[in-house]
Each structure stands twice: as structure tokens, then as C-alpha cells.
């Protein structure tokens, strides 16, 4: 190999992540699912309904908020779904990380899947409403469109557009997005260029962290469903 063809020793090749710290200057999204909602809401299919967080669980998980906040970049922009449970989770994390809650931006495109007329249906009654077999790891198939609602294909389209637009507007920067299980699965589907039905196989737990990056117009997944330390 000639000297001109050799890779300079200090130049990154392949964007490998060999160090424990993520490099700066990368267009990166830190995706966080909201905290656990209150008990009555969990009895029904709440989807995109604006339900409250569980105050008792939040009090028990204070250590988890501190743990998660420590992992988040200090200079990031903060974005939330318009639903109160996401905004309240974001506010709690921002307080734990020392950020000003007034800098939280709302983007309705990161809202949870709307199940339209099926909102509020008890879990036991929900399967009788479906026209397609549900995904084994979601309450309905990705192609099922509830009356006056949206399919996961629709969710994937709006989340994908939002990510591309925000990536272009904040190139080389970090963005924390507090959202929902369905929307985060849609983000992973967009990053991996897979069908939303496949992405529904990801487990996205409350207060979990997933990270995706856009580099040279291409997306990659850095981590999925990483939970904070709730005991520390």
C-alpha cells in the first residue's frame, strides 16, 4: 500500500465506538419512554389519551431519575411529546440534571399511537375489536387502523419525518426526546429501515433509554431499552 493510501493514525475509520464515552459532534437522539402512569389508566387501552403519571411510583423511583439524568448530555436540546405524562417525565429528568424546564420543546409528532374510538377499552375486551391478528408484542398489528385512529405505519411515517427534519436542523448535536413506547419503536424502525411490525419486537420499558444517530445521512442504533439504576 502506498503512503497516500494509508489511513492517518488519528483519523476515525468506520465510526467505531471503541471508547466508553460517545464522541461529540455526532447527530444523536436520546429517546426516553415516559414513566409509569397511574393505576386506573393502566386498566384500559389509554394509547394517546392524556393520562397522569403514578405519583407513588415516581416517588419510589427517584434514584432512577438521578441515574438516568447523569447519562444524558449536558448540552442537549430537550423535546417532549405533547402528552402530560411525557412532559412531566421530562421535567423531572431536567430537574435532576440541572436543566431549565423552560427549555423543553413540544413536538406533537412524537405522541403515542392514537387508537381513536378504541381509547378507554378494557384490556380484556380489546381483542374483539380487531380485524387483524395482533402483533405478539403489541396490542394490535402494525397495519391495523382503529376507527378515527392511526396504524403503526402512520406512526412510523410521522416519527421518521420528525427525526429527519430535526437531524438536519441540529446536525452534530444531541437531542433528548421524551416520548412513548410506540413512537420509540417507530424511531428504531426508521433507523434500521425495517417494517414497524418487526420493530414491535423491541421491548421499550418505562424510563428506558434508547440512542440512535444519523451519520452522513445514514442511521445507526447505539443502544435500546437501557434501564437506569433504580437502587442507586
UniProtKB/TrEMBL annotation:
Source organism (scientific name): Neokomagataea anthophila
Record CDD domains: HP_PGM_like
UniProt-listed Pfam families: His_Phos_1
InterPro entries to which the protein is assigned, alphabetical: His_Pase_superF_clade-1, His_PPase_superfam, PGM_Phosphatase
PANTHER family: BROAD-SPECIFICITY PHOSPHATASE YOR283W-RELATED, HISTIDINE PHOSPHATASE FAMILY PROTEIN-RELATED
Name by which UniProt lists this protein: Histidine phosphatase family protein
Ranges in coiled-coil conformation: none
Amino acid at each position: 500500500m502506498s503512503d497516500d493510501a494509508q489511513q492517518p493514525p488519528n483519523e476515525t475509520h468506520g465510526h467505531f465506538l471503541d471508547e466508553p464515552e460517545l464522541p461529540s459532534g455526532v447527530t444523536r437522539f436520546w429517546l426516553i419512554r415516559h414513566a409509569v402512569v397511574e393505576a386506573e389508566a393502566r386498566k384500559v387501552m389509554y394509547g394517546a389519551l392524556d393520562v397522569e403519571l403514578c405519583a407513588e411510583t415516581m416517588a419510589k423511583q427517584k434514584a432512577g431519575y438521578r441515574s438516568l439524568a447523569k447519562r444524558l448530555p449536558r448540552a442537549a436540546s430537550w423535546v417532549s411529546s405533547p402528552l402530560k405524562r411525557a412532559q412531566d417525565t421530562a421535567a423531572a429528568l431536567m430537574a435532576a440534571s440541572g436543566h431549565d424546564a423552560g427549555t423543553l420543546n413540544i413536538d406533537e409528532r412524537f405522541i403515542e399511537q392514537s387508537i381513536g374510538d378504541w381509547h378507554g377499552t378494557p384490556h380484556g375486551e380489546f381483542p374483539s375489536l380487531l380485524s387483524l391478528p395482533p402483533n405478539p408484542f403489541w396490542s394490535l398489528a402494525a397495519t391495523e387502523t382503529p376507527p378515527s385512529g392511526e396504524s403503526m405505519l402512520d406512526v412510523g411515517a410521522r416519527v421518521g419525518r420528525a427525526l429527519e427534519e430535526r437531524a438536519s436542523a441540529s446536525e452534530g448535536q444531541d437531542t433528548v426526546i421524551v416520548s412513548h413506547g410506540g413512537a420509540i419503536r417507530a424511531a428504531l424502525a426508521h433507523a434500521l429501515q425495517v417494517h414497524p411490525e418487526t420493530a414491535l419486537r423491541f421491548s421499550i420499558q418505562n424510563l428506558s433509554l434508547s440512542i440512535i444517530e444519523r451519520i452522513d445521512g445514514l442511521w445507526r442504533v447505539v443502544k435500546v431499552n437501557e434501564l437506569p439504576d433504580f437502587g442507586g
